[in-house]
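Please produce the structure of this protein holding glutamine.
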Amino acid sequence: MSIIEKTAKEQTQALLNKEISAKELLDETYKRIEQVEPKVQSYNCLTKDLAYETAKKVDEKISKGEQLPTLAGIPLALKDNMVIKDYPTTASSKILENFVSPYDATVVKKLKANLIPIVGKANMDEFAMGSSTENSATKVTKNPWDLNKVPGGSSGGSASSVSALEATVSLGSDTGGSIRLPASFCGIVGLKPTYGKVSRYGLMAFASSLDQIGPMGRSVEDVAALLEVICGYDKMDSTSINLEVPKYTQALGKDIKGTKIGIIKELMGEGVQPEVQESISNALKEYEKMGAEIIEISIPHVKYTIGTYYIIATAEASSNLARYDGVRYGYRHKDAKSLIEMYMKTRAEGFGDEVKRRIMLGTYALSSGYYDAYYKKAQQIRTLIKEDFDKAFEKVDFMISPTCPTTAFELNSKTADPLSMYLMDICTITANMAGVPAMSLPCGFDKQNMPIGLQIVGPVLSEEKMLNLAYNFEQAVNIHKQPQLV
Ligand code: GLN
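Below is the modeled complex.
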């Protein structure tokens, strides 16, 4: 097994044993990127200088025999909506094509403090709006398991890079499933933390009441380790939770006997691909064998989640994206005769279709005559969904569902029909609406050898136990496989 196929934990061991240096590990990673990137296209840009600078510090520490911080030297892909000082961040939008950030996002500060080399900025749907990464203005990322299929979105590059061994771990952002869906489509692990657990300072805002940054990796343990690095209170984010960060990695491997797992009945019926259904049922049997109790539960308002989400998310987006006006950031139309014309042409030329669709929808939902009918109603339903969750968590410790009703779909098969794309989010959105943590982990393959994702949803701040539940499954059902790209 080559070094880049190993998990972060194993790579760390290799660094400590001096089997390889941090520089050599980066060399291997960039070699792989050179090899497979023409096919997969995970990255908007590479950040080699930064990565090698970091690796050098790691090697110095190792040679001096100093202790390494968590994940030091482990190659990481960063979604291109988190800013790094003096490097470009585009959110895969034309409107930000020349934008260079004057500061570091809080998560980037934490990565730097832990000496984690950022190998590049990963492609995504423009401003994180989408489920396939096809809404990117820069390139079309492919699914490493089948290059004719989408990697999922919006953190498609963060997922494909880890799956294609172009990075060992990555960070994504999740507003309505954008970490979990691509994790599921690419056969890796991805976690959306409790709202407020990870600082959003330096994350380009999409829908601020839903957005969360989270870790992605090839094992539960790697994801737990990266979560430990990025969590924590930040005074720069007013929604940041001021609680100590648990040692997530130390919570792994505990017995789960007696854990009550709810299976969400509304998400297991109609519209779910039979192989997905079967895989989830098998996972539940595994959990039963481990001594968990399986209980069928209902989230009655699930049927309203997509409609509600696409009102709230677009309303917040229409407000958040008002800042891209050609004055302060990135692209500006050159020949306008008035300020208003400059705003209009800049936005018309700079934003892609999906972003414009959402700005229009959101502005409409917030406009004075329609606010009560749409935005206010959506917020009321959001409360009902949250109450459904509260009630469910009186009966069970965790809930399970598919991460997505299907496996990855063909490129271009849904781009002409935005509603069919929105339906991909049915299983993931509720966790963002309720602010609770949720994760996706591989649980099987369909007949075409495409990965299937199992979603676990837990109550607020249950990440430790949730990761342990996932870890137990991962250890019991060893389905580690790699896509064969070269
Ligand atoms: N697919 C959803 C959307 O397009 C989720 C996006 C996200 O989580 N960033 O809004």
